[in-house]
Specification:
Layout: E1 3-11, E2 16-24, E3 27-33, E4 42-43, E5 48-51, E6 53-58, H1 60-65, H2 76-89, E7 92-101, H3 109-127, E8 133-141, H4 147-151, E9 160-166, H5 178-185, H6 191-223, E10 227-230, H7 235-243, E11 248-250, H8 255-263, E12 267-271, H9 272-277, H10 287-292, E13 298-300, H11 307-319, H12 323-328, H13 332-337, E14 354-360, E15 363-371, E16 374-377, H14 382-385
Parallel strand pairs: 1-4, 1-5, 6-7, 7-8, 8-9, 9-10, 10-11, 11-12, 12-13
Antiparallel strand pairs: 1-2, 2-3, 5-14, 14-15, 15-16
Helix pairs in contact: 2-3
């Protein structure tokens, strides 16, 4: 499909230009400054035209599959399609669906969720009707004795672009303070129940975590799959990441960890909700503080898909981050970090993944997305304008 888009504020890699673009066969054919006289061109009325957003970590699919604790939607394919629509309405044209492998305190639900997610995503891709390009991010809970068994069937999946290493054992990572763990998960454990749970989880972690982590890292390097280290908190966490040639620090919980990650040329990912809310909901380091210190490379929507565009504009308006730089945190930087070099910016020869954004009373609202040149009009709602 060939289209021309005119009268747009086009956010390029290093500047914003007023002009038009030409799309041919799903690719950006040309970017032109100034007026455009093509009669059938799509007129953006001066709205922003941004590169399509690239999402590395979203829990949204799991929320669609299990909309309430213990309540699983009867048709997983319907859940994937609803999730896909949310991605498109949020400006996300490429999404790495985060699927958890391994349990910690939730019993069998996470394993059930893993199977449902991966099977439903495969079925949805086969339909050819998805609006966004769906890839896979496997979140490996390496303190689970069965995590390697769970990973094995999926490690060579062509859409697997990222693996993250997690350890949610009480006393580990951001939960060095076990009282914080107990408060965060709000499970209503009695003192005795929590003591027994912690003892059991710590014993399991001691027995298998180190070997599991080592083997997962080996499997990734054998296949050139990027690795993210989740919830880095201490200098030791970053030292280990450097030794393991890990390229991403996902949601570091302290400024110290983020600073050391920067020195090691490890990409730093923080949550869009953290930026928009002005702080972490779990008491960790504020993403805005990291941005002010130059310690932020990539934004992830985490649990709120609409937060990506809001977070980028918040960094621009509140911290004076140049808009092209802020937009790169939700497009170019995540794309290149996982090897997707055919997208992430508006440039000749790249995929025509684009987003029309209008500011409404100071709020950036996604009006339309284009995925490989195909338009996905969206309704302006509180959810995708927030």
């Amino acid at each position: 499909m060939n289209i021309t888009i005119k009268n747009a504020r086009i956010v390029l890699r290093d500047e914003i230009v007023h002009g038009s673009i030409r799309v041919a066969d799903g690719m950006i054919e040309s970017v032109n400054q100034g007026s455009c006289n093509v009669t059938n061109a799509i007129d953006l009325d001066g709205d922003y035209l941004l590169p399509g957003f690239v999402e590395l970590h979203t829990d949204n699919l799991e929320q669609e599959l299990e909309p309430r604790p213990g309540v699983f939607w009867p048709d997983p394919l319907a859940s994937v399609l609803a999730h896909d629509a949310t991605m498109a309405s949020s400006g996300i044209t490429t999404v790495l669906d985060a699927v958890s492998l391994g349990e910690f305190h939730d019993g069998p639900n996470r394993s059930r969720m893993m199977d449902m997610s991966i099977q439903a995503l495969r079925k949805a891709r086969a339909t050819g009707i998805l609006k966004a390009d769906h890839k896979l991010h496997l979140r490996c809970e390496y303190s689970d004795p069965r995590v390697l068994e769970m990973l094995s069937p999926h490690i060579d999946d062509a859409v697997l672009l990222l693996i993250s290493l997690m350890d949610h054992t009480p006393g580990q990572r951001q939960f060095t303070d076990t009282d914080k763990y107990r408060a965060y998960y709000k499970k209503g454990w009695s003192d005795e129940e929590f003591a027994q749970l912690s003892e059991r989880m710590i014993a399991t972690q001691c027995a298998c975590a180190a070997d599991n982590r080592r083997r997962i890292v080996e499997l990734c390097h054998e296949r050139d799959i990027p690795i993210a280290s989740h919830d880095d908190t201490t200098p030791e966490h970053i030292e280990q990441a450097v030794q393991e040639r890990i390229s991403i620090s996902e949601f570091p919980t302290t400024k110290e960890a983020a600073s050391l990650a920067r020195r090691a040329n490890i990409r730093i990912v923080m949550g869009g909700p953290n930026v928009v809310r002005g702080g972490s909901h779990s008491g960790n380091v504020a993403a805005q503080d990291l941005a002010e210190a130059g310690l932020l490379d990539i934004l992830s929507s985490d649990y709120a898909p609409g937060s990506l565009v809001s977070a980028a504009f918040t960094l621009h308006k509140k911290l004076a981050v140049p808009l092209p730089e802020a937009i790169a945190m939700i497009s170019l930087n995540p794309a290149h970090t996982v090897g997707l070099n055919d997208r992430g910016q508006i440039r000749e020869g790249l995929r025509a993944d684009m987003v029309r954004v209008r500011e409404i009373e100071g709020i950036p609202a996604v009006l339309r997305t284009w995925s490989v040149g195909t338009a996905n009009p969206v309704e302006i709602t509180r959810k995708n304008a927030a």
